[in-house]
Amino acid sequence: MIFTNEEYADIHFCYGFCDGNVEAAVREYRRRYPNRRLPSAQVFSRTHQNFRNFGLGSNVDHNRNRQNNNNQNRILRAFDNNPRLSSSRAAHQLQISKSQILRTLRNNHKHAYHLQPVHHLHPGDPEQRCIVRVLVGKVGGQLSIGLGDMSQLAAFDSIS
Question: Which residues form the DUF4817 domain (predicted)?
Fold first, then answer.
């Protein structure tokens, strides 16, 4: 049975009020809060033990969120520095699980780099090729890339 934070606080208070006597804590809780669900004796002892082991739940969540934010920043920085980085290599380099890498990328609308072989042209590809030829500038059967004195020339066959 799950209780609210307020109920857990009252459970722990009654447990401490009764000096760790579980049966007395159950009776005290029933006396103080007659309109609430009555937790079992196990709930009292587990609540106290969890508090001793883990402290306040909100602090645990806060530390976890801080760690996740630090990891998120490291992951995004790694992919900004090297967009061709794979999720496996990033996980190895950053010592973070691959699933957390992929989750962080997905949550930030990014994708890990992967090669995608192209086996055929898609509709619209010839038009895009023509636009590129016009933008770059086809001159006399050769393509001038316009890098000043480091210009590169590439011969192209005519497109039918």
Answer: 5-55
